[in-house]
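note to self — DONT lose this again. spent like an hour looking for the file last time. sequence + predicted structure for the chain T wanted, 616 res
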Amino acid sequence: MTFRKKLLLIFFATGLIQSALQAQTLSANKGHSHNDYHQNIPFLQAYFAGMGSIEADVFLLNGKLYVAHEKKEIAPDRTLNNMYLKPLATFFAQHGNRPYADTAQKLQLVIDVKEDHEHVIPALIKELAPYQRVFNNPVNKWAVKVVLSGDMPAPAQFKDYPSYIYFDGRPNIPYTNEELKHVAMISDDLGNYTKWNGKGTPTPPDSAKLSGLINAAHAMHKPFRFWATQDSPNTWIQLEKLGADWINTDHPQQLQDFLSNRSKLEYINPTPYPVYQPTYKTDGTDKKVKNVILLIGDGMGLAQIQAGLTANHGKLNIYQCSNIGFSQTRAANSDNTDSAAGATAMACGEKTNNRYIGKDASGKSITNLPDILAQYGIKSGIISSGDITDATPAAYYAHVLDREQSTNIAADLLTSHVDVLIGSNQKSFLNNPDQSLMSKLSAKQYHLSTSLANMQTTGNGKQLVLLQDADTRPIKDGRGDMLKQALVQTIHLLSQNEKGFFIMTEGAQIDYGGHANNLPYVVTELHDFDKTVAESLKFADEDGETLVIITADHETGGLSLLDASTSNGMVLGSFSTNDHTSINVPVFAYGPHAQEFKGTYQNTELYHKILNLLSK
């Protein structure tokens, strides 16, 4: 039996291997820039990526150490001194005898001796002599650690070298306590223990072997590194879960981006909220539709919904709907729509150009759904958890050629038949270039409130609720359940209308989180939106004549999900863009005629389907 097999048996027997190991969270400073000299800009690329370990292979030629993987690669200017020692010493001096300005960051220089360590190590000691303050300072905890790998002396000889020379250990070598003092870390080839290629997860037996190796190193108070690992986020995640201390990479900047942005890419929700259990009594029936509640999660694609589902431990109110379709979101002038063209398609039934609101592709004004429904005596409410003059809500009452024309959008409320308008951006109304706008709106029977508490929920008057911007701050910053309460109050008011109502409720800031590439922002906004969905489903069950539709204007961020734990409410993602994508978005429906929203269709069909049902 080999020593390695004996060692693994010991791991199992002593209980060092655990089937589920609590993952540590690594920083970019735990990156190991493997074969760093092959980078386009050796040393500097890894250094400015904050790598804590940088590796250079060396050969000895004519008394000098050259950096190369093979002898044929040796070039006159590619010496260890020029490429690594001099620039490192310069940064060390600039940062007050530290490798990095950030005192939390340390650095080790791993020198892989390709051959002839008997002569290479003395030559290395000679080249390090001018830089003793950088590498050999026992009182400076930030001194750069020199670690030798590759062709190394026998462990019994470690003590024969200066104390600032450390060695890269191996898991199959039984070091003495004295020898361990000279070992900086334990490393090995991943392929010696598993056929796992970095995709998915290792098998449970392989995970046990790998974590056992790492735990054994930790028992000796040494960090662990696998080399010959695939360079991908999934590999980095799995190595982190196994407990690896160093992440081997040939792409230091990509690793740095991934680890440094971790707080914006990972969300953990330890306590899930309960979801509503619908009765399904009228779901999918042919009963008359009197009311429609359209909920638009701005920027909400399937990945955003899945992230929300995972973070809520596998449950969402949205997924209580059994009738599901897909909306194709392209604009008239681009397959990637923005909210203006996307919302106009749903509000007016025609494709238009990006940035156009309530206008067709030729620039002609087209009728919004609330104005048409008013002809049937149906009242409308428009609600947003953001700026009420922003593109999505504006498409239901305004007509402008550029979504940035906020004051023009506000003024268009005068010609609209919207009965309730709730959202922020007071200044576009109260400080409008038309200084008489508010008096004109009052003459149109709009009652102005600046809080939901002051909103009137009885009587025949129209409601304009202009919230302070702070009232629509992100959920993560303390907004509260403004969106849900606004919908509940609007339902209470408009359900008094015998002819029925149409309410569009926008979860605006799912989109904001996508643009910011911030997953916690996305998920907390989606959860707020989902809790608002619950109120819609409840009312639909109580009323029996209400159809609930849940969809999005587009997907934002090109979100992909890299890791997840439904049991822990953890999700880790990555974004491919800070803009919109052309991915189809889902349509969920609940209530009478919900089955008519199955299938795949253009987003304009939402307008026609809603109008057809409410005009019967």
